[in-house]
């Protein structure tokens, strides 16, 4: 039973993990390394990250023990590999303790920073511990995103309420309330987008409000970060959305598909643009990640926004003696809510396939604990929704406006929790373990493959074949290994190389075919002295 509960939590982890909050950029390698003692002065500092970093707001500043800068003043991101940034150092640096303070903007638009201490010669006083790189939680950013998500859900919920769920000629009071809700949602969306630029600039520039409105920093955010590019697209789409809403609001044609077509196109285009700003846009299967992110946000907006519309636009129907109209509206919405939950499950599990690295981090990090809170809220919200669906089938002559309000409040809490996630870095994946795989190949013989250390870069490959007694099989001429990465696009980065016989029954080779983290297939092909073929495929993830 305990194991089943753990798997249930793990499934919910896959479903509810925010799709734009994968791990922010972190260092995978640096030269010099942290706390290293160098015999001679290096020519430059080189830092390699796990993902691409943005052109804007990157720097490496190197200081000696007296606080004097010893770098040449320019930090460069390599053109052929934007995961690596370098900074040249002044010539002939003396023996001393140094620290390299670095800043960068990760591919999901969040700034990260850290310190790498090192020494030239012996470090007499000892070296400080490396400051871990992370993106701090900025409350103003989380609040701004929470307002944006709530406003977007209110807009689409109000639109779909009139187009699909409510079947009655609206009176003047309902039309008036609809106008107010749409205007409020547009105003909140515009406010959140306008505030987003200085908030992002402030984060990129190091967290000081004095930098948020400096023209040079604002320009760098707009022109040299993906978040700035997406912001310009989003604000343009918002203006078009607001303008396209004017005829609809004047005519109060809330049930007209003709009047809603253009605004809805701009609305969903804005959601799609937002999907380009997160980590979903930089994973290997970029198109899949962006599509799932878009579907996830759309489904969440329809579900939460629909509940908001039921609360704010259906109150008079619940007060009537005959509540048929209210119950029929809830019944129609329930179909859409069920479909939205299905989309959330599908997009969550599929994106989770790309990003889940460690189950234990769910209970031992701020990210994981906040995620557990969101899971709890989601389960309560789902339970209330199930109760509402059940009650629509009974057709009781009672009002459920109170429980619908509770579901809406929980839905808003889920949206704001999601907004917090976008600022909290998920933990980096654990260090990969050496791969050890074996499989039967017939005649009681077993082929074993060992890969050490099983991570991007140089790896040692070893293949051995043993008989049913565990003794090495020696009548083998050769082995070749084909390494390729798997994905929706088929085979990628395919490479084939020969293994050398180091001793009877043992074949080995050092190779750099595993070039990045991900899912890899290892195809082992062998030939015996009798010219019989051996073929086996292994899978490894690093």
UniProtKB/TrEMBL annotation:
Residues 454-525 form the YtkA-like domain. GO terms for molecular function: copper ion binding. It is a multi-pass membrane protein. Residues 1-25 form the signal peptide. Its main location: membrane. One of its GO terms (biological process) is copper ion transport. Pfam families: CopC, CopD, YtkA. The chain crosses the membrane at residues 147-166, 178-199, 231-250, 257-282, 294-315, 336-359, 371-391, 403-424. Residues 328-420 form the Copper resistance protein D domain. Keywords: Cell membrane, Copper, Membrane, Metal-binding, Signal, Transmembrane, Transmembrane helix. PANTHER family: INNER MEMBRANE PROTEIN YEBZ. This is Copper transporter. It comes from Bacillus amyloliquefaciens (Bacillus velezensis). The lineage of its organism: Bacteria, Bacillati, Bacillota, Bacilli, Bacillales.
